[in-house]
Amino acid sequence: MLCPNCGKELPEGSGICDACGSTVNHGQAFPPDSEKSSAVTGLFPGDSGQSPEDAGEPSGGTARDIYADYSREDTGPDPAKPRKKRLLALKITAVILAVVVLAAGIAAAGYFTFLPARITLKVAQYFTLQKTWRHIDQAMARNRQKVDILYDTPLRSDTRINLFLDSASLESMGLSEQMAEFVAGLLKDITIQASSEVDMANRKQNLGISLNYLGNPTLSLDCFFDNDRVGIFLPELSQKAISGRFSDLPRLSEMYPGDLKDLDPYLESFSGLDPWLASTISREVTVDSKDIKKLMETYGMLLVNNVDGRKMSIKRGRTTEVFGEEIRCMEVTVALDRNDQLKLLTTLLDTMAEDDTLYDVVFKNAEKVLNIMIQGNPAITRNMGAGDLDISLGKPQVRLLLSGAKYLLRSDMFPEKAEIKAYIKGLDVVKYELGIPSGTSGDGFRITFENLVDDNGARTGFGMDLTDAGSSFAASLAMYRKYDVNSDIQDLDIEFGFTTAEDSIRMVFSSIQDPDGPDTVKGKIDLNIDYALGDDSGGLDMTADIVQERNRDGLPENIDLTASFFLDIPFAFTEPVNLSLAAESDIRYNVDVRTPGWAENAIDIGSAPKEEVDSFVNDVMQTIDSIMELAKYLY
Predict the structure, then answer these.
(1) Which of 621, 531, 584 shows the shortest CA–CA distance to 195?
(2) Which element (helix H / strand E) includes 207?
(3) What is the spatial distance between Cα 211 and Cα 103, in angstroms, rounded to a whole number?
(4) Does 42 score more than 50 pLDDT?
(5) What does the alpha-carbon distance between residue 398 and residue 408 come to, in Å, rounded to a whole number?
């Protein structure tokens, strides 16, 4: 028999279950689901062990649930199942991370050890272009900010300049010893005073320059620009001023046909001159740095994307010289025969023809510049009108020109072979070298491009060498730029040179800036030029120290400059000349720029009678003659 409560098998005749303590009724049938019941009777007060019928509870063969008084709404999750799910998720994540790390390790190891040349060059070129563009983007943003400030902020600058020349240098210019000593002493008491007010937004500018002796002006020139109107005043030469528009200049040739006949073409050209041409172009012709990035990615990857990988080879553990320093690198060589060169140039022309970004940045902006230059200029308009530009520089015409150019190309127009070498350091292509051999004597043509970009700055260099039948030519240009955005200071180095079998010129320019307190920047500029042209050789050396005080917006308020020059130019001076100068500029912003008062009574060349213009010219010429007579007497 079985216990009706817990289902345990009991000996025949047992009255109490020795497992759960329930009373056994020998006539009671065992309930069919008693094996699943967990209720225990006879353990709690009020549980008499009676059957449900005897206790007055519903019948049906189901044992009483002793947990019926407890809520079953939230029994809690089974702790074993979520733990298993979390462990599974962690295992999957760990496997994925391990695969990613392993793949990255294999890729990195392969890049430096066994990946083929084409993939290696493509990876390095991509990262090099991204780093280079970030520097270009920073420089463009900074230049645009400076241009916008200058355009939107009217300013005035006052500058004082003192020149110093020793008597020996003056003698080398042809002065006698006595005159040289006199002029050297005179220069100590002479100051050049220059002032400028400019409001570019309203197209107004006032300029003045005077030669002062002991603080008093001895010769001065004042002028103004107001849109297309210009005026000149020489107070020491004449009490009258003259003004007019550039479009009035041809009238001078009408008033003085004999004297100015040869100048007619120039006067007509100047009649359409826009004195604000540079400002207009800088505002209306703009380039987005994102377009520059797109062009760099398109044409910077053109070679590696369009040359068969079988034409490329790679050597690791090589060395090359970059900016005079030997570095270890990988060397990728691209060998191109005539057909390869033809295919590459054809692809380039096709890409350019379909490139809307290239058209907007280059051709469309070129059309804008030319239209601005010829606008209102009768001499240029007569020969090349705006309508002609729209036709010649329109997108369909440019596309047709570029697409048609490829049909003029033939493989026999190219050298028999060309070799391009790319030198890779880490993830940077630091040098490209194009070599075209000529004959077997070592003659040929070579172009190099060097590029080092890091967080400290960007250094770029171009070089070209040509050797043919004993003659040679070499040219180079290198530039280094380092900009600190936090202190808004910049270091800049430029080096240029070219040499032939007979001549050579070399220029080195260096500008360094260092902060000196929160509002002060100290700088140093060095310039060196050496030349050898035939039998003549010489050079120029210049050193300048600059102290700049800035306002809270970072704009200069005061600039002090001292500079020294050493000129060794035999065809101009018999002996080397030493010259030094000191200059100080004060700058104010948000000034009110107005046309000077003397402009109201100026002679207008567009409407004044010839006699009035003659009177002005005679006053100026007579005064100049008097000054020349005095100079002859002193000399």
Answers:
(1) 584
(2) strand 204-213
(3) 75
(4) no
(5) 16
Relative to beta strand 457-468, strand 229-233 is: unpaired
Which single residue is written with the structure tokens 């127009």?
Answer: 413
Spatial separation of the C-alpha atoms in residues 465 and 520, rounded to whole Å: 44
Which of 622, 614, 625, 615 minimizes the C-alpha distance to 256? 614
Phi, psi of 481 (to 5 degrees): -130, 130
User: Per residue in 114-139, pLDDT tens?
Assistant: 689 999 999 999 999 999 999 899 88
Q: Which residue has the tokens 């050049």?
A: 192
Query: What average pLDDT does the segment 316-344 reach?
Result: 94
State pTM to two decimals: 0.74
Alpha-carbon distance of 462 to 475, in angstroms, equals 8
Secondary element (H or E) of residue 549: strand 536-550
Q: In whole angstroms, what is the distance from residue 396 CA to residue 398 CA? A: 6
Q: Are strands 241-245 and 155-165 parallel, antiparallel or unpaired?
A: unpaired
Q: How far is CA 351 from the centre of its chain?
A: 24
From residue 96, alpha-carbon distances to 86, 89, 92, 430 in Å are 15, 11, 6, 35
- Residue pointed to by tokens 């929160």: 518
Beta strands 241-245 and 603-604: pairing type? parallel
Count of Cβ atoms closer than 10 Å to residue 609 Cβ = 10
pLDDT of residue 53: 42
Q: What is the pLDDT of residue 39?
A: 40
Q: Determine contact, residues 429/125, Cβ cutoff 8 Å.
A: yes
Alpha helices in 173-220 (DSSP H): 177-187
Alpha-carbon gap, residue 86 to 397, rounded angstroms: 66
Both structure tokens of 594: 């107005």
Burial 571-581 (b: 16+ CB within 10 A, else e): eebeebbeeeb
The three-point CA angle 200-197-240 to 5° equals: 115
